[in-house]
Specification:
single chain, 107 residues, alpha+beta, 2 helices, 12% strand, binds zinc ion
Length: 107
């Protein structure tokens, strides 16, 4: 399966594209990049919210399961075998881009 950011014109130099193809490819790339911007400091903010129970089934039998591509911690529920993040079940669920939040820094 091709990447979600793929267009039919990937790998071709812009000079080989019609103006319309170049416009669509550029707009698609920019929209993809904007929606998948790294969370940076926000990942640490979300990771500070530890989970002690599965937000889907309520089981306390959860284990840490690495991080996703944005650096947000993943958890695995050993009861229902589903994974979740600190955002699952909150208003931030399904939020793939930065929310524009800068964590407080103490100097
Ligand atoms: Zn569960």
């Amino acid at each position: 399966m091709p990447s979600a950011s793929a267009t039919p014109w990937d790998g071709l130099p812009d000079s080989d594209l019609t103006p319309a193809q170049a416009l669509v490819a550029r707009a698609h790339r920019e929209a993809y990049d904007a929606r998948h911007a790294p969370l940076e400091g926000e990942a640490a903010f979300f990771n500070a919210y530890g989970r002690d129970a599965c937000p889907r089934c309520g089981s306390p039998d959860v284990v840490r399961d690495g991080h996703d591509a944005r650096g947000v911690r993943r958890w695995l529920c050993r009861s229902c075998r589903r994974s979740f993040t600190p955002m699952t079940g909150t208003i931030f669920e399904g939020c793939f881009a930065s929310i524009g939040f800068e964590p407080l820094r103490h100097e």
